[in-house]
Write a structure and sequence with these properties.
The two termini are 24 Å apart. This protein has one domain. The chain has two helices and two strands; from the N terminus they run H-E-E-H. The chain is α+β, with helices and mostly antiparallel strands and 68 residues long. Strands 1-2 form a two-stranded antiparallel sheet. A hairpin with a 3-residue loop joins strand 1 and strand 2. The radius of gyration is 15 Å and the shape is elongated.
């Protein structure tokens, strides 16, 4: 699960923090993986990988095609 931290540093940044949840669902639909490495007061790096066999022609990805 991803969530937006409630800290003074991020208070001025607009948004709801829902973007990562959407990305996570899309990555999983494409049979990929997403993970994060985070360091307090330094930030976070998000990683995404996809298998070669997940192709846009795959019928199970119909919902994802609208974003392509």
């Amino acid at each position: 699960m991803f969530f937006r931290a409630k800290r003074e540093k991020t208070a001025s940044i607009a948004g709801t923090g829902i973007g990562l949840s959407i990305v996570k669902r899309l990555v999983e639909k494409m049979k990929g993986e997403i993970w994060v490495k985070s360091n307090l007061d330094q930030g976070s790096t998000f990683y995404v990988t996809f298998p070669i066999e997940a192709r846009m022609s795959d019928p199970s990805l119909e919902e994802v095609k609208q974003f392509a």
